[in-house]
Give the backbone structure.
Amino acid sequence: MSSQTHNANHYYVPNPVAYPVIMSAGLLALASGFIFNINNFPAGKGMMIAGALVILGMVFKWMGSVIAESQNGLYTKWEDKSFRVGMIVFICSEVAFFAAFFGALFFMRVIAIPELASFDPQFTMYKDFTAAWPSAGPGGVVLGKEYVVGHLNPMEAWGLPAINTLILLTSGATVTWAHWGLLKNNRKQLVIGLFLTVALGISFLACQAVEYHHAYTEMGLTLGSGAYGASFFMLTGFHGFHVMLGTLMLIVILLRSMKGHFDADHHFGFEGVAWYWHFVDVVWLGLFVFVYWL
Amino acid sequence: MSSTTAAHHDEHHDHPTGIMRWLTTTNHKDIGTMYLTFSLIMFLVGGAMILAVRAELFQPGLQLMKPEFYNQLIGVHALVMIFAALMPAATGFANWMLPLQIGAPDMALPRLNNWGFWLLPPAAILLTLPFTLALFGIGDGAIATGWTFYTPLSIQGGIGVDFAIFSVHLLGVSSVLGSINVIVTILNMRAPGMTLMKMPMFAWGWLVTAFLLIATIPVLAGAVTMLLTDRHFGTHFFDAAGGGDPILFQHLFWFFGHPEVYIVLLPVWGFMPQILQTFSRKPMYGYKAQVVSLWAIGALALVVWAHHFFTVGMPVPALLYFMYSTMAISLPLAVLFFCWIATIWKGSLSFETPMLFATGWIVLFGIGGLTGLVLADVAADAQYHHSYFVVAHFHYTLFAGGMMGVMSGVYYWLPKMTGHMFSERLGKLHFWLTAISFNLTFIPQFFLGLAGMPRRIPDYALQFAEFNAISTVAAFVLGFSQLIFVYNIVSCARGGKKATDRVWEGAEGLEWTLPSPPPYHSFTEQPIVK
């Protein structure tokens, strides 16, 4: 590989690879399989599984080659900066994605529901509807055994969600502590910090699963429970999905740290994941305040 | 560890040939060529769809197709032209020209770059597959809601809506990847000495574009995801019975949709001053003013979205805000127009094909901009809304302002890309046929709109017959003159008079310092910019 080591004035351009195009084929299979599935056409499930496996395999191979290139010293400060700027921009796009769902929540709560409750009773089919949040909407939904119109009982903020807030905030601290260890080249502190972060991430997901179970089985709260149900499950659901991705990425970084892949000057992989983790943390704070608390 | 090692390193690439070259390439020129080729193909596909529509509109009554199929054609036409023709063309130019213009060895993230392109064909397949499925009795065809996916129509729609939703998801991922790549390339790959304020204007145009894409494409992804869950998983985001609101969808969609106009146009506003200065043989006028205006337009684009649905019922203060903020865009845009005209003012002009398109573009895009100002007026918009006036307006911005700008760029850079000169005679013929037939297609539509003909309807009252007939004939001329464009590009790629390095007498910039065509690896050693 000696011919591939290079100086700081020569940017590393990778050799041709087939992973991206195969991954796109996997995405096509996954997407069309999903469409067939929700429209009750046969073969949807099989296509979805095949597509997902192809995507997983390609992510694995692709990330594997990036790690190998990094270990072979192909990335200098110059490539490192590309990754950093790229990661920041990517996180900005994720912020915009969550902004859409927060925007929908605010719109329904501040504009749509008060307006639905404001009509003259002669001109509306929703005569008794009042604008109280959390709302199941004027049409009414079945929650468990009772039929609810308008105000519904939401998920309590100061139970599991408050504990989850504590868990995520602590995990933000442990990942920073791990970073300090890395900067001091103290691998033990790095590994312990990352291990704690992964453990906290998994605990968060476990609490979330318990909460969802409680919502569906005991409260009767579902995706179909009007404006509240839709915004609650879509926001917390997409956040939970991001926590799961973040936890998987942290596990990879933990394993790499145990192998000694990072040192004080060369650890974009670690930092990118840490940034992502902090982003997930901040989104949760927004969720806790606007979805659970207020 | 010096340039000899670097050269050695390059020789060790074993480049696959044939189809594998294109499937696996990480080279910015190959990927740029794929983007541009894809764009051209989809331009013809989208054009064929709308010619079928225009044929139906040739005379009143229903002749050729059912209204459902008509609705599918107009919606898919728009999605194809915007997402699969205009946007990939801009990204193709970014891939080809940004590294050459800023003295970079390649795009900053080459593998992501490859993935960004290869997401497009699956997206195009998803968008058009329902047409084919319908032939086999599966589903009821492609999305029939228009490109805007308005609820509740899109909630009630068939399987085509689901396909369009996932197509938009893939296109969105592709756009975000492309934007990440462009931002990183511009911020991290410029040649030593090229400060931000010495960058070519094209880089500025694309930087603002990428910023808009990052801010808005994920919101569109969120909106169509909510649409998907409303359709299949019981949510009530856009359903009043659950406390949602169909108008929420319009807000989410146009928060993306309005910036999208600038996403399509800003790259063109980037390279157009370069073309104007080349054929005026004098420096670009008002570089700083143009940069500031591009950013001002980018920022304003994010806060004016509701002018697309003034008639839907909004509080008066909201109407006034969206009217004035929309009109405020005309200030930085007027600065740009002033700079473009001042660039050619008293220049030593010559009218090769790219310059013909560029000057035609200033005039026609100007009409698009001014008619937009009319639509921004809340009081007047009630008359124009959802009429053919709107159709004519946005074709002056997107076809004249966008696609004719792209054509100018193609003619400008084609000799650099292929190493051959294209046929000037055919290029000029293409320009005049396009410009004249374009105007004959869309000027009648302004009048139709003012007279009250609604858009998106396959049939119309007898009084609109003459203008529609003129528009249809001209549209066919417009469509078929694009075959000249295709022929000119293909024959230029296959051979022709050898192009010099500089190609155009007045051309300035790093891309003209390289041979035509540039070597596979351009700027392995970065040039120093003084």
